[in-house]
Fold each of these.
Amino acid sequence: MNILDKLKNKRVILSDGALGTMLQAKGLQPGECPELWNITRRKEVLDIARSYFDAGSEIVATNSFGGNVFKLSYYGLGDKVSELNQSAAEIVREAAGKDRYVAGSIGPTGKMLLMGDVTEEEWYDAFREQAIALEKGGADIIIVETMTAIEEAAIAVKAARENTSCTVAVTMTFSKTPEGEYRTMMGVSPEEMINSMKEAGTHIIGSNCGNGIEEMTGVAKAIRSYDKDIPMIIQANAGAPEYIDGKTIFRESPEMMASYVPELIKSGANIIGGCCGTTPEHIRAFRRVMPPLNI
């Protein structure tokens, strides 16, 4: 069933947790290209996808967050965009089988329109290349995630909508201002995000990264205050990162995060998962407090 049909039936859907956290646990080194693992360490990437599905995820994202031509060119892999993205989707498709969903991950390029180091056409072409390859590899959903700039997010959504038949989701990363409002690093409000992303054609909207799960309930409520109906995805960090003895530590336990899941559902979240620091154990804890799969 198309995921939008499930959401129309008031299903609350469980997505996955962090990928970077899991890759690091399997040996990804600082400065190493994560997307190259889709070819060189395929088994490890497949194991991660399977671990999330085994924990109860119905949606698992691909290892393609930085798979755009700009970021891959940094590693000398700019000519491998299609190969690495298609492989990323094929891996998760193998783990998912026929009944669960593959979300093709598209992250920011690291380029800024205002600084003149990219054009709208270059952005569009980069996102189009990624989206087409992800769909070819078996993605059902394109998730444009961790965005902070409204123009970049909108162009990524348009590229996915115009060049694939996938459901398209977008998430932006918000922080609370001293005035108690939510804004992205580039100053975008939830209302501006909703208006722009709906105009671009997104099917699902939401927020990921930047906040632990308690703060994410506030973000969810802020989004819902402007739009009561559009499907919403929320993926919280396992708290703020702490750097101890050269390691990044996230302190929100699976049980602590799971205790906020009912509140997230009440706040209007339709798809719930985790971001940085979360693991299959977090997702397993979420599954225990969510409505049964047959609802």
Amino acid sequence: MAVTIRGKLLPLPILQGGMGVGVSLDGLAGAVAACGGMGTISTAMCGWREPDFASDPRGANLRALERQVRRAKATAADTGLVAVNAMVATAQYADSVRTALRAGVDAVVCGAGLPRDLPAIAAQVPESNAALAPVVSSGRAAALICKLWDKHYRRIPDFVVLEGPMAGGHLGFSREEAVQSQSGGGKPLSDLLRDVLEALEPFRQKYGRDIPVFVAGGVRDGAEMAAYMKQGAAGAQFATRFIATEECDASLAYKQALLNAATEDITIVQSPVGMPGRALRSPLIQRVEAGIQPKPDKYMRCLSACDPKTAPYCISRALMAAADGDWENGLFFCGAGAGEVKRLSTVREQMKQIMNEWRSAQ
């Protein structure tokens, strides 16, 4: 059941997915790690509640990130592991990775782009021995990253997160594939898992060690986690279910919006930076769909691909509004199973439930 990742023991095979902006910070990540899982802080605009954020957003983000990593590690108390999720597409990607490594994070997980230079960035902080992991959506992507890291850095991922098309937030699939998955179509996560495991096998053989794969996106419970583990996964990553916990760093109003949601309230959106994503159909999304959303006066330019000329709204401001529970103006990212979350609980209750379901499925 326990998984060894770069020499460190992860007692439970559960990862908590990184959720920005302001949804998974040290409160949630530290609580998950204290229960024996891997808690994940999202680096995306993690300092937006800092008093000087408006005047110095980059400095505020990095200062907050360092503090959050240290606090989460203190909460974990050497029980589980603390990771950061650093989106490759963000403008502060490299700075965020270096800051987290210096603060003592156990792992860096990167998605929303190809983290081809992640080992080089990590090498700039030689005192760190953190695990490095990409988020992939196919065997092809997993093989490409391994080839690049092997060729240029003589290194392979310490673990891999395989995110299927039923995940929340930005997706590594086309809009059509995401819509298909919502109605039960598309390539099953089990098939994607088989493809990724096959792609990683030559690199396992070459380096003489395992590359644990954690499945994510549409894993409903511990029983499904057990089924994927029997197919070769090391464990699973959960995200949406952890929003409705007392420890989650989002506002109570955000959590209530999730609890109020039905399956038909979940939709595929087109992010202002060109990626499809899954979110609740809030009034903001309805205005965007109707073509009546006013253009903002200012964009934060937190993502490299952001083009104010074409973006219908500022995604950072929309995510901040959601974290504060502003239903009218917020972008509420969520997974395909969000409609099944109906009760506010605690991280400990969620972790216990997942593991009980896992044990019952053995």
Amino acid sequence: MIYILIMHEVNLRRLDLNLLVVLGALLDTRHVSRAAEQLHMSQPAVSRALGRLRDLFGDSLLVRGHSGMVPTERARDLQQPLADALSGIARLVAEPGFDPTTATNPVRLGCLDLEAAIYLSPVVERLRAAAPDMPVEIHSHPDDYFGLLAEGRLHLAISGLEPRQRQAEFHRRVIDTTWSECLMSRDNPLASGAMTLERYLRASHGVVAITGKGPAIMDQRLEAMGRTRRVVLRLSSFFNVPDSCAGTDVVFSLPHRIASRLARDPLLVTRPLPEALQTASFPMYLYWHSRHHGDPMHQWLRSLAMSGAADMASDPEGEDERIGGSQTIP
């Protein structure tokens, strides 16, 4: 950020750092009123600050679009350096270290409902014991967790997916490896006999559509093979899967950890995928954004989260990494 200001020969002694805080809120919310609410300022004061910011940077920064205000290219280029700069300033003036026994700020974690039950239960147990006055908020609604991490609305997220944009802003650690398998009623015809590709494709399939958009990953794989399956049911939650399987002919293809958890119901069974659809295991990641990477509280939280997931972690001693390349989820 300092580099950007020097390039424009801005006198740092005359720069109001509060303007940068307002800019950060505006770029996060893309809305003057919501930025004002977040900053505990009046809307006119934020509007005036936006005018000063436009003069400072020589750019509109935010313009009206079809669904609200959208950042200009200049603003998009500023967003990450600005977040890093504000985070660095906060660390500069903050008291060193972090004491969980006296912490009262909320911890915000994100993952899907059943993944929360599988992976976050031991994390919450350890967190409550170490930081009894620190509230825990678990966001388990289907959503763009990467966007929430980037906006600072989540501290950590668990996912087997990867961000589609701005990948270099995120860090991650493998906490588990799993694979896909079938979950169905014990009375389903597919519960016995050879699990061939043809039998699998003739079955009635259910899909958990987390985002509600686009085809399931299994359907994308089948399309690449020139094959299709018959999807008769789409759900938005894993917890609705058992009732949808029991006593029906519906088959779900799910990650092993989730299928095993749901198969505790005595009416359900799991079976391997047809050999043609079996792939190597794939990772589940703990994700966080660069804006929190050096924060003492966040460093403590990440260590606690990894400790809580150690029973399932395939590589508990693995290294944190910036995202590079892509990962295909079966």
Amino acid sequence: MIFEYRNKKITGLLTIVPKNIRTFDEEMEKFKADKARNKRLKMVMGYEQHRMFDDVVCVSDLAVTGMEYLFKEGLLKKDEIDALVLVTQSPDYFMPATSNIIHGRLGLAEDVFCVDINQGCAGFLVGLMQAFSLLEQTTVNKVVLINADVLSRKVSKADRNSYPLVGDAASITIVEGCEEENLVQGEIRMDGSRSDMLIIPAGGFRRPSSPETAIMHEDEEGNSRSLDNLVMGGREVFYFVQTEVPKLIEGMLERIKISKEEIDWWMFHQPNKFMVDKLAEALDVPYEKMPSNIVTYFGNASGVTIPTNMAYNLGDMLEKNNYNICFAGFGVGLTWGAIVMEVGEMKFCKIIEL
């Protein structure tokens, strides 16, 4: 799908991360892998630490905490909000929608539109598309986009391929219409035939959780997980990202007639440092323009890695300056896509801890 929007901008961004930090070295003590292998893995993949919330913390808690912070700081007013878009793979309940729960806890007006979107690694892009589309309505002037996941509790602690890098986080992005002429261009693709590459096999209606789905099984690499845990085809996902993402981005840039040199920053989803650095090489982009340090300091919080990337690596630079940014997300679904737009002179762009 190719899409284009005009006169839309991001005016604020807040990322909420846990105070609770676990280091890679601490996590590796649980596994039998030799120390030399762990050291190589740490260096190549960029693993240092990850952040996780306690089991009692849910997506609506993160969203409400972040929104109340914005209200308190005078960065957002309740009566300004026309729509609330939540992108998550870890809702509070099957029903009702978590966006409605957030709406109720915040006491928002009855005419505020709420919607949940089940998306992961490309969720920031999908959420922006929904927000931009809502802004096409004459009655919608400001959309709150919330990306949030607490998937750490769905990853087996005995899975050294996934658990040491998973993270929890949330972000709140304010999206508005603007009078100045600008252009947002992008492209997104999906391949459901490969949806089993990233999957939690049990817990839905297809295969409800049960004592049987909770039984742990060890794979050939010595990782243990149950059907209630996330399972990822690591090699297949890496191959998918390295073949499909550069091809999509290069084709899109050629179509919209923008050169790589015109892009100031490449804000990509960050599964790990190695994968992002390989994308920089494939696209012939300098490493310093495509940061790859989010997993290093926060862990992989799915679609929230892009907002975290912006807040951590650019921060107040985005409050003072304008930049041409290429966003890219890729993963579960399988879903992959990119957006090119001017971002900057934002009211706020920051990280808070919870």
